[in-house]
Amino acid sequence: MMDTGHGTDLRRKIIQFIIVAFIGLIVFQLFRMQVIEYEVYTERSRSNSIKAIKLNSPRGVFYDRNLKVLVSNQPTYTFQITPSDYSDSLNSILENVVGIDSGRIAEILYQKRMYSEFLPRSIKKDVSFESIAWYEEQSEFLPGVNYIVDMQRDYSFGIKGSHIFGYLKEINADQLKLMKDKYDMGDEIGFNGIEKAYEKYLRGEKGVNYFLVDSRRKTIGSYLNGSKNRRPVKGKDLVLSIDYFAQKSAEYLLQNHQGALVAIEPNTGEILALVSSPSYDLKDFASVTTHDLWKELSSDPRKPLFNRATMSVYPPGSTFKMITAIAALEEGIVNENWQVNCAGGYQYGDRFFGCTHQHGRTNLIEAIEKSCNTYFYQLILKVGLDKWNEYAKLFGFGSRTGLDTQEESSGLLPSRDYYNRVYGKNKWSNGLTLNLTIGQGELGTTPLQLAVYTAALANGGTLYQPHLVKGVLNSKNNSIEEFVFNSEKINISERTLDIIKKGMERVVSSPEGTASLIKLPDLTIAGKTGTSQNPFGKNHAVFVGYAPVDNPQIAIAVLVENIGYGSTFAAPIARDVIDAYINKIDISDQNEKEEIKITENN
Amino acid sequence: MQVGYKLQDKFDFYIFIPVIILISIGLIAVYSATINHPTAQGNFEKQLFWSIFSLLAFVVVYYLPSQTMRISAWPVYGITIITLIAVLIIGKTVYGAKSWINFGPVGFQPAEFAKIGTILALAVWLGTKKHNINNVKDIGVALLLGIFPVMLILMEPDLGTSIVFVFFTLVIIYWSGISLFGLFVVLSPAIVVFSSIFGTISLILTLIGTIILLFLFKRDLFISATVFVLNVAAGFVFDYVFSILQPHQQKRIETFLDPASDPLGSGYNSLQAKVAIGSGGFWGKGFLEGNQTQLRFIPEQWTDFIYCVVGEEFGFLGSLFVILLFTILFLRMLHLAFQIRNQFRSLIIIGVLTLFFVHFAINIGMNVGIMPIIGLPLPFISYGGSSLTVNMILLGIVMNIYRNRKMHI
Fold first, then answer.
1. Which CATH architecture fits A74-150?
2. Taking a contact as any Cβ pair under 8 Å apart, which residues of chain A between 3 and 22 contact chain B?
3. I want to staple B43 with a disulfide (CB 3.0 to 4.6 A). Which of A24, A549, B34, B156 is the partner?
4. How much is the ipTM here?
5. How many Cβ pairs within 8 Å bridge chains A and B?
6. Residues of A with Cβ-Cβ distance to B358 under 8 angstroms
7. For chain A, which residues make up each domain, given as ranges?
8. Does A26 sit within 8 Å of B370, measured CB to CB?
9. Crossing angle for the helix pair B159-175 and B136-154, nearest 10 degrees?
10. Pick from A15, A31, A49: which is nearest to B291 by CB?
């Protein structure tokens, strides 16, 4: 700047250059933003101003086979925290008011730290009205805290159904990743039982409301007058195969026992009742499970969370004897007149295999009726392990039954290969089969398998895939869109089955039958008792049966752990459930009335 | 055409028409930004009133006798200083700055009116023949004239307005023909201050650069040493200034240097402003259709972020149109400043031009994200009575000079 005069041309040019250059810069920046990167900013602007609020769809309701409600929904208040607006200093106040353990909020927030801080986290479900009232008064001092009205399962219809219905759990991050389009953080998803197996029917479709929001994410109106909003679609209602009376009675009858019961409609495979005892209260899972409850349940030595009806493997005891008999008859090894003289047991090699009584001369039907071990010891020696295994397999033992909720064990059906593998080739004696024929030894079956087997005996030899759900209720005309399940006809002659069924009928109807004490005046029951030895205590009481004899409507398997004879402890339970189902009686209700009567008489 | 020619001879439409259009655009934008806002109802009407009021002020100033400026310069400057001191004592605090003096229902910002007095005073001082711009004493007085109000305004504190004062003081000194060394002496402390924002290393590097330049100028040791000490002092003064800034202002500077550090704080405004402008696209979303504006994503959008409304609702075309109007205004004023050989009047125009341009550059720069968020209104467009009135008075002075230009060649 050599010219040092006032306002020279050079000085003007320098200022002009600065002005033009800066304006050029601004124009360039405007062009970049409004023309080149227009779409980026448009997208940001859109997501800025439109907020989608998801509307949860009510979950499908469970009905029993007669369309009685078993599980429904009820509104509940849930407290939520949105971390972006929330301050940790409120933790202890909130924990106090809503009644959760101290430090729990910090724990929940920590667990969910990977989610966006603008998403609300549920901290307590099923909050009391008092807490809500408190919140309404104090809300201005509680930034980032709000509550929503949510739906929660309602189990107040008289059926516990713990091991049938299953429960819901908050979706975890991995599941969420896979099903981003259908679920959001904090959503519940079926964790087990029917809730899990039929999740896709039950969950329905979420709705969404779009709102315009201002810079504070405060709603200031609806977007496009709500024309883009979607209403939630309620989940499909399921019609269960469960019978209210059978299930309610079975739960009542088993409540003080450890054991399981499975009742099946023999002509369809529909499960009428399924109980595992001890059980737990699904109500406790409906609100957010406290850690204590979870710990208590999972560490309980009686294993209430375990589904004994489908997962527990027991030796079936004498209820398995029909398998040997069927194999013998079908293979023509003996006919029904073949007799054995029971002197209270059978000496095989150097080992004596005992019987319950000295049954004297016994034919096949009598052997079933009186559950004569001696007869079956000798019969299995004629039939052999391979044939026995083959016929047991036909009835579904040793493999999964195909239960729709899929929570089941396959049990254990020993075979020649199995023994060779366990004991070494030819290093085991045929004496092992003497245990198998009376349902002891390595043989393991689930109560569900026993029920399916009994149903097949009752229905003339068809193995149905057992299921808990019949179909989906069409709410428009109350019709049921039934699901299709498999069935398989077992290749066994009617004559053979008739003989077996005759024996089973006499178990109850004959005065000498092992379950004669459950005989009812107006309802014919056929069955077979079993007493399954186990190394952990008293024998398990087992009973399988069906009724009515001429036209079976229900097949049932009952197992009560560590209690004694099947005839004494399992058979009466089976009878009562059969009675409850056929005559539509609520046994628990009746018994309570009787108890009241007794106290009144006293 | 005879009449038209005569009118243009007395009244510069190249300045007036762009300004009138800018004020109209401002009214439209203020209307759009406030119509759906719960707490800004009535701001459009107020702005309409101030537009008319300031236009009257403009006309009055336009018709003032041509000697008025020179005569009133010192008294106005004196009043300026008094009101700037007064506001520190009796002022009302708005947004963390004690910048308003209220007379009943009417309030005004002394710092706005101080612009007039300071520009006049500087122009009078440097425009007098007996003062030599390359005389250290005369430069020193000129600097003091500018720095004194800056100090007072910084104490409010109002960083943005202080920056404007610094700029027009420097440009007026520059325009009056300061030598390269003089310019260096005046500018280097500012450069040192600016570099000190970026940390100790850049401060040291700048100081080293200062030393090298001082050697190249080959002035005597005493002057060189004095200049260097001034530079070092400036660096430390800035630290003091920074420390007296309001936390939100400190944050704004820090956020500008590292926008990612605070995406939801001060950076939020900048980001939302960019989103508003960018999403306007080429054609804009239409009047009252800008969702960023209508949904109030940008706080107090009718003041410092008014340009976003234009950008969002009228798009690239609208934004460019505003820039174009300002460009015409700036270049025309520069042209006038160059044409008018009366030093006093030329300096006034260059001072007003600088003031408008700094407001424009910082305001639009921060709206489009190339400048830090410094609260400065966009001349003629942003909502605000004091600012609009002062701008129109300044414009009236410029037009008055234009009207009388032939008397003072």
1. Alpha-Beta Complex (3.90)
2. 3-9, 11-12, 15-16, 19-20, 22
3. B34
4. 0.90
5. 136
6. none
7. 44-68+157-240, 74-150, 244-278+306-472+486-593
8. yes
9. 170
10. A49
Q: What are phi and psi of B249, to 5 degrees?
A: -75, -40
Chain A residues in contact with B369 (beta carbon < 8 A): 29, 33
Query: Tokens 């150097």 label which residue?
Result: A350
Residue B145: HSE in the Cβ half-sphere, 13 Å Cα cutoff: 28
Domain ranges of chain B: 2-130+148-154+259-407
A47 vs B contacts (CB less than 8 Å): none
| Residue in this structure with the two tokens 């409010």, named with its chain if needed | B156
**A371 closest CA partner among A439, A424, A291:** A439
Give the pLDDT of chain B (409 residues) as one tens digit per residue. 455 567 888 899 999 999 999 999 999 999 998 887 767 778 999 999 999 999 999 999 999 998 999 999 999 999 999 999 999 888 877 766 778 888 777 778 899 999 999 999 999 999 887 777 777 788 888 889 998 999 898 888 787 888 899 999 999 998 988 887 777 877 777 778 777 766 677 778 888 888 888 888 777 777 778 878 877 887 777 777 767 666 666 666 665 555 445 444 556 677 788 888 998 999 998 888 887 777 666 767 888 889 999 999 999 999 999 999 999 999 999 999 999 988 999 999 999 999 999 999 999 998 998 887 778 899 999 999 999 999 999 999 999 999 988 775 5
Whether B350 and A220 lie within 8 Å, measured CB to CB? no
The tokens describing B79, both together, are 């009043």
Which residues in chain B have their CB less than 8 angstroms from residue A48's CB? Answer: 272, 275, 291-292, 295, 297
H or E element: which one contains B89?
helix B68-90
Could you tell me what percent of chain A has a pLDDT over 90? Answer: 56
Q: Is A173 on the interface with B (CB under 8 A)?
A: no
CA distance A387 to A394: 11
Give which of B140, B132, B162, B130 is closest to B149, Cα–Cα: B162
pLDDT in tens, A414-431: 999 999 999 988 888 888
Q: Same CATH topology for A44-68+157-240 and A74-150?
A: yes
Query: What is A244-278+306-472+486-593's CATH number?
Result: 3.40.710.10
The answer to whether the CB of A486 falls within 8 A of the CB of A402 is: yes
Q: Which two tokens stand for residue A397?
A: 């033992």
State residue A147 phi and psi, 5-degree precision.
Answer: -130, 155
Whether the CB-CB separation of A344 and A295 falls below 8 Å is answered with no
Strand A462-464 with A487-489, pairing: antiparallel
Optimal mutation site among A17, A18, A33, A42, interface B, most CBs of chain B within 10 A: A33
**Residue indicated by tokens 């003497």:** A434
